[in-house]
Structure formats: structure tokens, C-alpha cells
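Journal club side-thread
Mid-discussion, someone asked how the predicted structure for our own chain would compare to the paper's figures. Pasting it here so we can look after the session.
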Amino acid sequence: MLRDTAEAFKHFKLDRASATVADADAVATISTGYGVARWGEGKWGGTEQCMVTRKDGDVRAMTSVLQNVFDAWMKLLGQPLAPPIGEY
């Protein structure tokens, strides 16, 4: 998903069939309210944050996507995981 988001900003519209994001318009900075993102994802309190809408309509907080990518690399490298973003 991180790759698709980066490619959407570079090429605006993705034509790759396996892409999870359609285009750059799928990425927006919005204030999340009840029911906008998954439970436990992103910032609390309705503050603005970067959200990504997948082709299937699922909305994900970019901070959670970045946390997952970081954790995957740390596991691959055999390093201890950092605390979740919400604990900073």
C-alpha cells in the first residue's frame, strides 16, 4: 500500500492491475471522525491526518501503514520493535 501511494503521487493514476490505490486523489489529509478509519488506527481526537482510500473503499491511516512497514523491516533485520505510534 505504501508503494502504491508513492507511485500514485509520482504518476497520478495507476494502471497496474495489482495496485491497491487508484490515483493520487485517494490520498487526502482529513479530520477523522467516528467510523472513518479502522478502530485503533491513526490519531485520536479528530485531528487532521493523512488517510488513504483503497480501491475497495477501505480507508487506512497512513501512520498505521508506515508503522507496519517499519515493523516488517525491523523483524526482517532481527531488531526490536519500536512502540506503536499511538504511544509517542
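Post-session note: The two ends are 24 Å apart (CA to CA).
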